[in-house]
Design goal:
The complex is a heterodimer of chains A (229) and B (405). With 229 residues, chain A is α/β, with parallel strands linked by helices. In chain A, 35% of the residues lie in helices and 28% in strands. The relative contact order of chain A is 0.19. The chains are: A alpha/beta (229), B alpha+beta (405).
């Protein structure tokens, strides 16, 4: 059996100080290394909140989160930032490339944040990653000169830069047409198979969810269903 | 640091209009600073120079004695002796004092002088003059007499004298002529005019007659004495301090600094200096506020990028650093251009604004230290201005940015 890479116990998240709004009501789940999981649910169900906590962007109000062997619910902001940099890749719905930088530079940014200075080795690796997502010839284009699908593929290349064990994707195809959606999905699948990266994808696209290995459905802050396809 | 610098530069480049506007603001601010500062400093130096450039900064005079009791107490034999003190308050030990003064730190010229009043007589005319007995080499260090000779030579000795051009005009004298001088003590002698000087002061040119010190000592019957010792020092504003040191180390003399006799000028200089300081402070505040407001807007505009960087694991303090660096870059570039502009403006001013004779009103003083201070202040102001935006950027929550697109 593979190693457990995400392990949560009775995760509770409450927003607001005066008027308390409990968004997650004690979520416990385990995800193994190399899984390709989707989290689905209607908007307001708490699935994005769950993803933010799993992705070390936010802390739970109570409960325990262990990601890649580390208790991240106890970490302060700085520790979380460093943890994200070395353990997580992110692909967001709105592409979120830095428009001031070229495609290649965007891919290198996670490494620049970690190491603080560039090296030729890093550049070679970034070029390889751009090649992997099929955009090698666009390396010198500014992020603003790319189409939506291309931006998302650059974002995927970027998320792999620091070799993270887990990759989080929040509606990665939410803004894309059918053809681009298909391309991006295949790319994610390919990376999962080739590199063994664990994927956690939040989506409300039933088609995409059905093409993952495991679907966790969140409704009203609880896990309603959790099944393998 | 490399990464933060790179992001800062890219952010600045991406908002070109904004960046140029801030730069323009800083440039103008620093330009005004440098121009105003140089102008005021030049003006002050020129005023001080006009006042004391060719004048003693400190004058050593014998200590004033109280009214002397000329009648001695009743003598043993019942006589009272009435004496008239022939010593009219000269400095007797001036040679040792001169040696001492030459060694005092900060003094650059020492000129022991004998002063006395007299009348210059020619034909029916009789003009009141001041006889100044000097060693010409020492006096030159203060008054530059040798370089200011209009006619003849600055050679003293014997009965040679130098007179001012106003006096020469008044008495219709030229080099080689004889001049009869009658001292207030009734001694009368003939002198030969060796040279005519122009000390750029109508008063001095009309009243001064310069002769050798030895000749003056015999003329005024002050053997081996001087009336005063005139000093010039390196930094004119230390005159009071040096005068105090001299007085504390010597007895029976007074050291009078030019500062004591020019209180009004000094007050004017001080108030001018402080008003220009106030203007400069407000310029800096205006520039700082300008940078701060533009950078604050820039934090809002770049909140998306900051959110992404944070999600990818950059710490809040490093995000803050990006904005501090932006402030620093803006301050540096702006102040360098501004300094160049300020110097240019100063030159323009010197070249355009002239007096009726076509000469510049006064030299503008470009002081490297002052410019370096201005540049550092601008850079510092840029970074201080960036502090609040930097703090705001650090507070930004990546989750909000990501979820809101």
């Amino acid at each position: 059996m593979a190693r457990i890479i995400v392990d949560t116990n009775k995760l509770v998240k409450v927003y607001g100080k005066d008027i308390k709004n409990e968004v997650l009501h004690g979520i416990s789940l385990k995800i193994e290394e190399g899984e390709f999981v989707s989290i689905i649910g209607p908007s307001g169900s708490g699935k994005s909140t769950l993803l933010n906590i799993l992705a070390a962007l936010d802390r739970p109000t109570s409960g325990r989160v262990n990601v890649n062997g580390q208790e991240i619910d106890k970490m302060d902001d700085k520790q979380l930032a460093l943890f994200r940099n070395s353990n997580m890749g992110f692909v967001f719905q709105f592409h979120h490339l830095l428009p001031e930088f070229t495609a290649l530079e965007n891919v290198m940014i996670p490494n620049w944040i970690a190491k603080g200075s560039p090296s030729d080795e890093v550049k070679q690796r970034a070029i390889k990653l751009l090649d992997l997502v099929g955009l090698k010839e666009y390396e010198d284009n500014l992020a603003t000169q790319l189409s939506g699908g291309q931006k998302q593929r650059v974002a995927i290349a970027r998320s792999l830069m620091n070799n993270p064990p887990i990759l989080f994707a929040d509606e990665p195809t939410g803004n894309l047409d059918t053809e681009s959606t298909d391309k991006v999905y295949k790319l994610l699948r390919n990376i999962n198979k080739e590199l063994g990266t664990t994927f956690i994808i939040v989506t409300h696209d039933k088609d995409i969810a059905n093409r993952t290995d495991r679907v966790i459905e969140i409704v009203d802050g609880n896990i309603k269903r959790d099944f393998f396809i | 640091m490399w990464f933060e610098f790179k992001v800062a530069v890219r952010f600045l480049k991406s908002g070109k209009t904004q960046t140029l506007l801030i730069l323009l603001g800083i440039t103008i601010g620093v330009m005004v600073q440098v121009f105003l500062g140089s102008l005021i400093q030049g003006l002050q130096k020129s005023l001080v120079n006009q006042t004391v450039g060719n004048a003693p900064h400190i004058t050593i005079i014998p200590q004033e004695k109280g009214p002397e009791n000329l009648i001695s107490p009743r003598g043993e034999e019942g006589f009272r002796i009435i004496t008239f003190d022939s010593n009219r308050g000269g400095i007797g030990r001036w040679r040792s004092l001169e040696e001492y003064l030459k060694k005092v730190d900060g003094i650059k010229a020492v000129s022991p002088t004998i002063d006395g009043s007299a009348f210059a007589l020619r034909g029916q005319k009789s003009l009141s003059v001041i006889i100044r007995g000097v060693d010409i080499n020492a006096a030159d260090q203060i008054y530059d007499i040798s370089d200011r000779i209009e006619a003849g030579d600055p050679t003293l000795g014997g009965n040679n004298i130098l007179i001012g051009n106003e006096l020469a005009k008044e008495l219709n004298l030229s080099v080689g002529d004889n001049l009869n001088i009658n001292t207030s003590m009734g001694i009368d002698d003939n002198f030969i005019i060796a040279g005519i000087f122009d000390l750029r002061s109508k008063d001095l040119n009309k009243s001064w007659i310069i002769i050798s010190r030895d000749r003056a000592q015999t003329l005024f019957d002050l053997p081996d004495q001087v009336s005063n010792i005139e000093l010039q020092i390196k930094d004119v504003f230390t005159a009071n301090d040096i005068a105090n040191i001299i007085m504390s180390e010597n007895t029976n003399i007074n050291a009078e600094s030019w500062q004591k006799n020019n209180q009004q000028l000094l007050t004017a200089l001080r108030s001018q200096g402080s008003s220009s300081l106030i203007i400069q402070i407000f310029v800096i505040i205006a520039v700082t506020l300008g940078i701060a407001s533009v950078l604050a807007v820039s934090v809002l505009q770049k909140s998306r990028q900051i959110g992404i960087l944070k999600a990818m694991g950059i710490t809040s303090s490093r995000v803050g650093l990006i904005f501090l660096i932006q402030g620093g870059i803006l301050g540096t570039i702006g102040s360098i251009i501004g300094t160049a502009g300020g110097i240019g403006l100063s030159q323009l001013f010197v070249n355009l604004v002239r007096d009726e004779m076509g000469n510049p009103l006064f030299p503008i003083d470009i002081d490297i230290a002052f410019i370096l201070i201005s540049i550092s202040i601008a850079i510092l102001a840029g970074m201080i201005a960036a502090l609040i935006p930097a703090r705001n950027s650090a507070k930004l929550n990546p989750v909000e940015v990501i979820n809101n697109g």
